[in-house]
């Protein structure tokens, strides 16, 4: 059997092979073109979906009532919303929870905050832990009295930001012209004091004065090593005070081992003994 090929047959075979190769390459190009087209369409759909989602009214915070606030014990919801500084309407997808969280913590009245976005229904969910006021403050600066609140760390709290029921208003009052040195430790001592204290006058930090149930008590500059002894000494003077009127006198406990009685506005002081009587009332 003759298996040899003529030149014409070889040319025909090469031509068919070349045509088949061209058809294969053409199919591959079409497939690649189709893939690229689908990728472009998919990317366009994603971009369009994002734009549609961002501008969609259903995913927009259009009123303050869509900002849910929980955990606040004393701070008003309105105060928390004002701290956020949102402008309505605001796209929910453009709101950055971490940025709002940092803004809340920078205000001073908030100790802890967590901000979440919820799409269905669209709203902001904010959980906070606010600072609790422990004292009402009358602060005098440039002859102008500003009322506010103070927490146990000494953080100033705007009075207008808080809603306080009658039983939530602090019983302690602080009078100052600036921050009160050692306030955290002083407040801790007041909480544990055996004698009731209703007011702290810190206008002169070198001569702190306390309004107590035995009368006005001066303790001098705050000293953490003496404060508990001073309050205990005030408690021990309770029996002596019950037979004495201190309306026009002040008890000096700067040295708790040697208490003295001084006329308000006077310069001299006398040691307190069982026989000590207050000065004659000034008229």
Description:
The protein is an alpha/beta fold. It folds into 2 domains: 59-130, Ubiquitin-like (UB roll), CATH 3.10.20; 135-271, Rossmann fold, CATH 3.40.50. The protein is built from 6 helices and 15 strands. Strands 8-7-6-9-10-11-12-13-14-15 form a 10-stranded mixed β-sheet, covered by helices on one side. Strands 2-5-4 form a 3-stranded mixed β-sheet, covered by helices on one side. A two-stranded antiparallel ribbon has the order 1-3. Strand 4 (110-118) and strand 5 (123-130) form a beta hairpin. The longest helix is centred in the N-terminal third of the chain and has 49 residues, at 7-55. It is rod-shaped, with a radius of gyration of 39 Å. The model is unreliable at 278-283 (pLDDT under 50).
Gist?
The protein contains 6 helices and 15 strands.
Q: Which secondary structure elements does this structure contain, and how are they paired or packed?
A:
Elements: H1 7-55, E1 60-61, E2 67-70, H2 77-84, E3 90-91, H3 97-105, E4 110-118, E5 123-130, E6 135-141, E7 144-150, E8 156-158, E9 172-176, H4 183-191, E10 197-201, E11 208-212, E12 215-220, H5 227-236, H6 238-242, E13 249-252, E14 260-263, E15 269-271
Parallel strand pairs: 2-5, 6-9, 9-10, 12-13
Antiparallel strand pairs: 1-3, 4-5, 6-7, 7-8, 10-11, 11-12, 13-14, 14-15
Assigned CATH class of the largest domain: Alpha Beta
Topology pattern, helix = H, strand = E: HEEHEHEEEEEEHEEEHHEEE
Instruction: Tell me about the largest β-sheet.
Output: 10 strands, mixed
Q: State the low-pLDDT regions, or none.
A: 278-283
| Fraction of residues in β-strands | 25-35%
Mean pLDDT: 83
Chain oligomer state: single chain
What is the number of strand segments?
15
CATH topology of the largest domain: Rossmann fold
The total tally of domains equals 2
Strand arrangement within the widest β-sheet reads 8-7-6-9-10-11-12-13-14-15
Second rung of CATH, namely the architecture of the largest domain: 3-Layer(aba) Sandwich
Helix share, percent: 25-40%
Structural class: alpha/beta
Distance between the termini: 149 Å
Number of helices: 6
**What's the gyration radius in Å?**
39 Å
Q: How does the overall form come out from the CA principal axes? A: rod-shaped
């Amino acid at each position: 059997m003759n298996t040899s090929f003529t030149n014409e047959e070889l040319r025909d075979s090469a031509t068919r092979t070349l045509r088949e190769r061209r058809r294969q390459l053409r199919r591959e190009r079409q497939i690649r073109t189709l893939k690229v087209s689908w990728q472009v369409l998919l990317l366009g759909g994603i971009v369009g979906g994002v734009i549609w989602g961002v501008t969609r009214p259903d995913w927009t915070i259009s009123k303050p009532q869509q900002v849910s606030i929980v955990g606040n014990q004393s701070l008003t919801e309105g105060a928390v919303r004002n701290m956020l500084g949102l402008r309505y309407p605001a796209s929910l997808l453009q709101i950055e929870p971490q940025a709002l969280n940092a803004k809340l913590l920078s205000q001073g009245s908030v100790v802890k905050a967590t901000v979440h976005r919820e799409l269905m229904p669209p709203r902001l969910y904010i959980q906070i832990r606010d600072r609790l006021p422990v004292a009402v403050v009358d602060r005098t600066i440039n002859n102008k009295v500003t009322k506010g609140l103070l927490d146990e760390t000494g953080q100033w709290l705007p009075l207008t930001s808080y809603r306080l029921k009658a039983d939530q208003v602090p019983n302690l009052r602080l009078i100052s012209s600036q921050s009160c040195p050692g306030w955290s430790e002083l407040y801790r001592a007041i909480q544990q004091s055996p004698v009731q204290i209703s007011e702290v006058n810190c206008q002169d930090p070198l001569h702190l004065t306390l309004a107590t149930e035995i009368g006005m008590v001066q303790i001098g500059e705050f000293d953490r090593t003496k404060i508990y002894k001073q309050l205990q000494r005030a408690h021990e003077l309770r029996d002596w005070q019950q037979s004495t009127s201190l309306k026009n006198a002040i008890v000096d406990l700067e040295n708790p081992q040697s208490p003295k009685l001084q006329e308000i506005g006077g310069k001299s002081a006398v040691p307190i003994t069982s026989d000590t009587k207050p000065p004659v009332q000034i008229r």
